Hints:
alpha/beta, TIM Barrel, Rossmann fold, Immunoglobulin-like, six-stranded mixed beta sheet, globular
Amino acid sequence: MEIVRNQEKNAAFRERAAQLVAQMTLEEKVEQTLNWAPAIERLGVKAYNWWNEALHGVARAGVATVFPQAIGLAATFDENLAEQVGDAISTEGRGKFNMQQAADDTDIYKGLTFWSPNVNIFRDPRWGRGHETFGEDPYLTSRLGVRFVEGIQGHDENYLKAAACAKHFAVHSGPEDIRHSFDAVTSKQDLYETYLPAFKACVQEAKVEAVMGAYNRTNGEPCCGSKTLLQDILRKEWGFEGHVTSDCWAIKDFHEGHHVTDTPVESVAMAMNNGCDLNCGNLFHYLKQAVEEGLVEESRLDEALINLFTTRMKLGVFDKLEDNPFNQIPYSVVDSAPMQQLNRRVAEQCVVLLKNEGGLLPLDKSKIKTLGVIGPNANNRRALVGNYEGTASRYWTVLEGLQEYLGDDVRVMVSEGCHLCHNKTQALGIEDDRISEVKGVCAESDVIIACLGLDSGLEGEEGDEGNEFASGDKPNLNLPGLQQHVLETIYESGKPVILVLLSGSALAVNWADEHIPAILQGWYPGAQGGRAIADLIFGEKSPEGKLPVTFYRSTDELPEFTDYSMKGRTYRYMQSEALYPFGYGLSYTDFAYENVSASSAKIGADGITVKATVTNTGKMAGGEAVQVYVKVCRENTPNAQLKGLKKIHLAPGETTEVEIKLPAESFGLFDEEGVLRISAGEVKVYVGGQAPDSRSAKLTGKKVTELTLQIPDTLA
């Protein structure tokens, strides 16, 4: 039995941790609650820094494989791939840790406690940190989050490979610039239906070792000191047994931003008493005073330390080197050929083909003499990696990927086109100083690839990337700067145009949808991203990504950014028609669904099983995300929601039978008190390669199969 599920072994680790903590002085205990925990040499405790990042690769500590940003991984709709990526990250993490330990290097970003995944819900496309998440849907986020955590933590019987952390708990998705003072007010219904499911799945299914609180308040309580979130829900309702960390310097927000306490001592007491075990920051120094003044019981401090040292013991750092198989992972695994191959495969699978009018893609290189590559993201490394990134030994931008692929066979002509967001590329130039070059490249080229979008300098965390838009959030969904003007200029050349968008979020590319024949959404596709995009453009592989977020037509159809009600948000609650819907993505091949059936016309206590025969009827090998949606047929219920998923890969002409189990809970909805209710009546189940909305049907020319089932009174 793997360590995360072995209660006996976990209890033994806790007992060892309790014995160690019992030998510490109050001063020593307090110091161990800070992320830079110092050594206690007399007890054989090494220094340890808890703060490490691994959102899409081991981050901020030198060379590592830089995988596609989390939102790109989400677009693969592939649970198995999510676990493979998590496993690769923790393999590299162990290889780096073993090397660092040998050099006695215990600096920040060099531990085995990885503060990822981010399983917040990307409820509003303006949020700058949305690209760190797995998108807008709680089911997809849950499935990918669980498997990513399992990949990070491993399946060993005796030790954790690394410790994952589900963040930011909870109800956290902007605005960035007011996060230190903001109160995210939500109903119990939205809390349980949307904001909590992924955290619950990570805790109960994946047995995630850590949970990080958010900066904001939720319904009046600061998340890192919330009795409701940390005690009532996390510990009591869900049975969480790991440790809780604050977000970095979040506890000082209690008195400085939220004004729910008056002093630092009161703030640390509130955090510790409500279940926060570790402080990223330095405020927990005040715990000594809090204990001495009777604001915190020393027994609660002991409990926090037992939680923390249990994690370190599960990681095996207190045991003999030879006892732990992960100590044998060599540093040479980092950035190795197998890692680079996996990275390229993930990048290929995350790209979404949004439009392909007249089958313009894939291109045939034998029919092209000159290819024009234009745009500020053509050769922008920052647009490959997103934020919370490591350092790759080599990067392939879109331009470099195309140049490598075409070699000397095709002339590649290049123009930056414009700055990513400013009105000129040279400080002394006039506005729009590259437009003549754009026209010149177009005139010489047979086909144009326009590389536009964003990068992590435009969308990201407040203060993290020096964002152009100050807070990291987007002011709107438009292409920034002169990009739209450049795209229209390219179009006016009359040459065939392929638009490659690199961004971590949805853009309202309405004009492009009307005028540009082929559009690819590449996200931030990682260090191998340019090679993957070149492979897809020239048909070495077929695109298979699906959108994990809705592409809206305008911010006008969105509620206020600060409104945390889900009404009108995401594909589950929106009333308007999307530009590109959740779950949508085209392919170069075609998949036919036949013999779609449910195991019963009535939903039983064990739910039902849906079956379908899927055939690749096209001429290329391809991947298909088989999606199952459920719509409860009552008034004032959400739109059809994703409740089942299976990623398959088929050769041309190949057929497979897919089985997807839907537990009874798939047919329930949460009431106003946050209680899951399964009500008698009719439900619709939809099976296919897309969501069951009219826009998806229009874009693909296909409809999904609809099954009408009954929930009997006996189950309700």
